[in-house]
Write a structure and sequence with these properties.
Length: 700
Amino acid sequence: MATVKKRKLEGRASGSSTPPAVVEKALEKAVEDGPWQTKSETRFTRVLPSRNSKRRSVDEVDAKQAQGNDIDGDDGGSGSEPSGRRAVKQHSSFKPTKTKLQRKAGGRLVLATSEAERLLVLGSYGVRVRAGEATIAGAILSPSDDVQWVHAPHCHAVPVLRTAEDTVLELQPHPAARGLRQLARLNPAFGRLWNETLPQDTDSGRAGKYPASFQIIYTSEDAPKRAVMQELVAPGAWNKKLSGLAAARRKATPVIFLCGPKSSGKSTFGRLLANRFITDRGGARNRPWSSVMVLDLDPGQPEYSPPGVVSLSRISTPNLSPSFCHPTLTPTQGQIRAHAIASVTPALDPSHFIECALDLFAHYQRGPDAKSPLIINTPGWVQGTGLDILSELITALRPTEVLYMSQDGPSETVSTLQSAAAATNPPIPFTPLPSQPTDTAPPRTSLHLRTMQTMSYFHLSQTLAQTATAAATQTWDPAPLTALPPYRVRYTTGFRGILCYDHQPAASLLAEAINGTILALVKVESTRAFRDLLLPPNSSPPAFQPLTTETSPTTQSKTKTKTKTNNKTSNKQPEPPIPLIPNPQGRTLDPRHSRLLGLVLVRGVDAARHELQLLTPLSRDTVSALDGDELVLVAGRFDTPSWAYAEDLCRRRGGGAGEEGVEDGEEGEAEVPWVEMLHGSQKRAVGSKVWRVRRDLGRS
């Protein structure tokens, strides 16, 4: 990629005062006739490297980055329109012509660039470099790489695709785009994120036989209406640090500890760094890392797991999509081990959170990937108990460098973390970096993003291919969860018991407490995982009884009749209760002897059959191999899946209208779900809210 310099249009090269409109027409004609012959830029600040210079690769750009230049910091240009007209922002410098852009079969596009160009592509697509080099979200792509799949909705910063000189690349429609977009029919939070307003004939494909899953955004006028296009911008200090870490990666295995306030860019920087490690060749003798390990310790906004979970994953391909587009990884796709925090914050049990982090780090050290770089992402809780957690993790994990993603404090937090890093032997370097710049408020809140990620997790297709290319093979089932057949799990043989991490309900109220909630399915590897908990009697396999279709009404009628007959003949045997593991002290499973298999949604409790009806995206092979004596269902403070209760209603009303919510329809009260939305203290008596249990009062 060529080094970029911005120049203002000053007329002709000789300095004459030619009107800007004349110059713009000349430039447009030059673009239509062939490659640009001028070094001047339009008032939209085009990216125009010198044609007389030699072809510069990405490595030369890295040298400029190391000096503090910000190649990702350009805003794509902005123009000041005449009074009364909306200002138009230039997002892409690439100008399509018959020779530069060719449409191929299947909706593919082939782009040829003689100059270094930038393209902002909205939607879902695959990119493959045929010649030259290109970069996107920190990943350096070359002709030897396979197709890299991208999901780029405008609810997140859209990554910019940059090409070097004399580059030929191919854009392909994403095979999983349709299923992901159809989730908007079930929840308006997924609506208006892509290129839904694409015209019938555009540069990204022809409508009809090949529906376009992506669109090149040349100017702000090409963007969907009411959409705020924010480009993925990396400050100059980020680029300098990325180049430094990539250049020194062979001296020692890097273990990078990312911390900082909320929304400071920890996840974004970690994604850029992982992509750089995987794809940066750094010279003929220096091959890129084959994989990068990611220790995700942020249960509120995790990258490779649903909310409420911390995980250790192996990443072997660039991550070019937001987290709700890859809500989990199977063991064959890269997940090494995971634990359920059962909450979106470590505040539920800080000690258990630290135990889980130490266990995941120990598996990294003992595993075959101990020589691969490790990126540790932490929560944005940097004060009070959260600061104590970060300090303890720095002391215990001993990373090679601590990066604090803010230069605005708080001063107490910075000084405490610096002291923790300096107290180790040898001292750990501590580097503050600027936060990720944001021009506007994000269109989706943290709660919306958690809802989207959880919903995306439960709608993953159970028949997805078990391969390492997770981003390309993960597909979604757009049917409402109420239309999916559940797994039937018997009380006595399906699992060892239910363990509550937070509130301890009475055994008689357990069915009502867990019905319609999310539970964690945990596999116990040793009885030592229970610590000193009192266990129900042992159960026996099989654990789950999968169903391919729902039980027919005739079968249900026969079953009910048989049950009534049995009750008449014998009323001596009491119904077995749901096994509850008593936990009055609020203890947790030992993460050294247990691990998370996945999350389940309790669709219903069948008291007549003594069964739980569970929904989970776990594959049928995984479920069929489970042993009920090794399974525990963990209840905690997962977000209430209210989105699941209204999916069918949203689908019948024509969901996906947008973030504003579902429009009021003409259906009667019988068509409305039983859920009632309350805001604040509406219809609640004083003191009726759930009391928050503080378990960190003894921490200094």
